[in-house]
Amino acid sequence: MTARGGTRPDPGTLTELFFTAAERFDKPDAFLVKTDGTYRPISHRQIVERVRHAALALRELGIERGARVAIVSETRAEWAIADYACLTAGLTDVPIYPSLPPDQILYILQNSGAVAAFVSTRIQAKKVESIRSQVPALRAVISFEPAGGASDMTLFDLESQGRALETPELVGKYRHEALTATPDDLATIIYTSGTTGVPKGVMLTHDNLYSNVFASVRALPIEGADTSLSFLPLSHIFARMADHYLMFATGTTIAYAESFESVPVNLAEVRPTLVLSVPRLYEKFHARALENAISAGGMKQKIFFWATAVGAKWADARLAGQSPGPLLKAQYALARKLVYSKLHTRTGGRLRYFVSGGAPLSPEINKFFYAAGLPILEGYGLTETSPVIAVNTPDAFRIGTVGRPIDGVEVKIAQDGEILTRGPHVMRGYYNDPEATRAVIDDDGWFHTGDIGVLEDGFLRITDRKKDIIVTAGGKNIAPQPLENRLAANKLVNQAVMIGDRRKYPVMLIVPDFDQLERTAREQGLAWKDRSALIAMPEVRAIMERAMHESLAGVASFELPKKVGLLEQEFTIDRGELTPTQKIKRRVIDERYRELIDSLYASDAVAG
Predict the structure, then answer these.
(1) Within 13 Å of residue 32, how many CA atoms lie on the same side as its CB?
(2) DSSP per-residue letters across 225-255
(3) Contact, 15 vs 87, CB < 8 A?
(4) Spatial CB neighbours of 278, under 8 Å, sequence gap ≥ 6
């Protein structure tokens, strides 16, 4: 089965996008940055000037067109300045997650052949300083903040050098050369976080990203008066394309959050109209709303659950294309006033919609937000596809799917269920790895995503990762992600990972939400000295098993995990259990917790 979006946008470049948007919108508040406790604006004209100065200085350092320059930084306005400076100077930038340890940064710097690196803080500068002797090609380290000698200069110093060089003739030459970039020129190399093996450098051209930006513009209702709150890592392709280039191209004011943890506070300060996030944010909002209702108890708790039940009925009617009856309309209006209005207030009161990507979104949570009048437009893509393949829109919205293909994008389902895609969004290939490139892009130009899915009336539904499919010893195929996502929506669960490949039956490893679990345990009269003792209690294991069975009610018997293993510590990036994009490294988990896993299978009391 095949589906295709509309006509592809004309080819273009990111430098063209940058200059055109800055001149077209010319806003005083292109960016908003919190300084000394207050959000302060940066205009399009200031951005263009700062980008030009940085680009001129980079070239003066002897960094030639086509060279690679790394950016090791959290999401902030300086990241955008560095990126546009590289692009307009004809350089290929290499974003690196600031959460990565020095040895992984070293691999990317060496593999990409980076000759310079932007770093955000002294912490990031010290990481690069610790490995710099092993990267002889690295001639300059530029920090966004003073780094105490760990960098060669600050971004302020770099811009000052460029400003001193500036002449009318040089400005004209710079702009002319910047606009000589072609759609096929390499814009960036993004190293995939990869759940297995070493990272691969995904080569994306100017038009890979440009085409994806303007196909997304056609799909999503974004207006020049919009404001977005940016907090996802710009090292990730979803944030890079959608929260960076797309917002800039549409004249949307980009407000930079102080951190992911500060998002609730910054939402109230910025009052954005658009927010792009991964599902984790929506899960936290939902969990907080649920927790507030439960802790309030009494009438407030009853009102919350009444309102959510009414909201679900209203959502079901609307999503089925029906008009809710007079009674349901009246009940829903009251539910919005009593419950859902509080969620609007927490998001700033102006939000038109969310966009979700990067990982699967729980349909239950999606419906909760839809009922609240805060629709989440879920999309799908990969680094190798720039990234958007499909996305839900206000006019074509179906919960449980990732929407229809965007303009210029073809999608088909292979005989084994794998999702294939073809179009201007597909990467040039993996850097210095033609064999790996041939393994994923066939002779007809179809990119093999590694995801399993189906097309339903043109809407794409993802069912699992091809390589994550668990095949039990009895030959049963289980897609673990949908089950893990359902379980993660439970208030008692923080993280969940299913294990069971080539074993008699699946089991589930769970990191509890300890705040919720401890409250539940106290209500049952249990006592414990620490969390390790808590999760060892048979009564607690029984609590978590009941929670799992409630969340997974209705699944096939062979899919239902037979046992639960509880873990005290969250899975983290630092310990190598999660990728920088928060994806589970299932094989690492399987190996690291082998003793616990083996103990779950030690008894034959449970039949497979």
Answers:
(1) 24
(2) T-EEEE-S-TTSHHHHIIIIIIHHHTT-EEE
(3) yes
(4) 232, 238, 356, 357, 358, 359, 581, 582
Q: Which helix (H) or strand (E) holds 215?
A: helix 206-219
**Cβ-contact 191, 200 below 8 angstroms:** yes
Question: Nearest to residue 279, comparing CAs of 142, 482, 475?
Answer: 482
Q: Give the separation between CA 315 and CA 237, rounded to whole angstroms.
A: 32
pLDDT computed for residue 607 by the predictor: 40
**Is residue 512 a contact partner of residue 544, using CB atoms and an 8 Å limit?**
yes
DSSP codes of every residue in 419-472: EEEESTTS-SEETT-HHHHHHHB-TTS-EEEEEEEEEETTEEEEEEEGGG-EE-
Query: With contact defined as beta carbons under 8 Å apart, do 505 and 480 qualify?
Result: no
* Amino acid (one-letter) located at 316: D
- Prior bond of 580 cis (ω within 30°): no
Lateral strand order in the sheet of 116-119: 153-154, 140-143, 116-119, 68-72, 92-96, 186-191, 201-205, 429-430
The residues pairing with 459 across neighbouring beta strands, listed in sequence order, are: 456
Q: Which residues of the chain have pLDDT under 70?
A: 193-197, 603-608
Two structure tokens written together for 153: 């200069």
Per-residue confidence (pLDDT) for residue 477, from 0 to 100: 77
Q: How far apart are CA 24 and CA 32, in angstroms?
A: 19
Scanning the structure block, which residue is given the tokens 């009269």? 525
**Cα(72)–Cα(104) distance, rounded to whole angstroms?**
12
Q: Is there a contact between 391 and 377 (Cβ–Cβ < 8 Å)?
A: yes
Neighbours of 169 (CB within 10 A): 8
Amino acid at 51: V
- The single-letter code of the amino acid at 41 is P
pTM: 0.86
- Residues in the chain, total: 608
H or E, element range at 92: strand 92-96
The alpha-carbon radius of gyration of the chain (Å, integer) is 25
Residue 605 Cα distances to 501, 510, 601, angstroms? 20, 21, 9
Dig out the tokens for 421 from the structure: 């895609």
